[in-house]
Write a sequence for this structure.
């Protein structure tokens, strides 16, 4: 299998970390960050995804272009190869958690890219709303942790994997201070030393 994408993308990292948990070997076709992407890398992305986004998964003659769908595909493909302590079950509650995590990620990446490529004020208009979405989303996830009313964090599955990738990207890119959400800090600290998380860490120099 081949994954087209950047080591710095939280969405690409979610897919790569899933591969590690499922013991699915893959080759990363590194594109670099959007702002600094070479013409060759840009052409590779555009040729494989009509939405011009990463990640893209190639598996034989299959091409899959959305991180959520890629992860579902990988879980269905893995059979009994997954790490025994990685939960591959995704029920309706977990689907809601995944939707919130990916929504937060979309809002944060939008703000980050606009901050790198435009002179727009991040505290006005839709960009301001995007930050509100991040804050309300993190607060919701904090309430859904195993210390309160939900199951987030009780096991290490897809929502927890996505959450760690997102929180660590937030810290790397100085998006927001998630240290105020005690339950999310607990979940992060509980799982941050998993092999899959360490192997896919964002490079120090990125």
């Amino acid at each position: 299998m081949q994954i087209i994408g950047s080591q710095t993308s939280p969405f690409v990292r979610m897919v790569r970390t899933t591969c590690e948990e499922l013991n699915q070997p893959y080759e990363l076709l590194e594109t670099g960050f959007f702002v600094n992407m070479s013409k060759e890398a840009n052409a590779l992305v555009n040729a494989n995804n009509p939405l011009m986004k990463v990640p893209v998964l190639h598996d034989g003659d299959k091409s899959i272009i959305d991180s959520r769908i890629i992860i579902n595909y990988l879980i269905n493909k893995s059979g009994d190869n997954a790490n025994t302590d990685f939960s591959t079950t995704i029920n309706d509650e977990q689907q809601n958690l995944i939707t919130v995590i990916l929504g937060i990620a979309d809002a944060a990446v939008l703000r980050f890219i606009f901050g790198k490529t435009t002179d727009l004020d991040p505290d006005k208009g839709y960009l301001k709303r995007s930050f509100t979405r991040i804050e309300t989303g993190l607060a919701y996830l904090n309430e859904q942790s195993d210390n309160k009313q939900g199951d987030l964090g009780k096991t290490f599955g897809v929502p927890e994997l996505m959450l760690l990738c997102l929180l660590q990207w937030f810290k790397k890119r100085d998006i927001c201070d998630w240290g105020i959400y005690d339950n999310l800090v607990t979940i992060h600290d509980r799982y941050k030393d998993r092999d899959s998380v360490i192997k896919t860490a964002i490079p120090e120099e990125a």
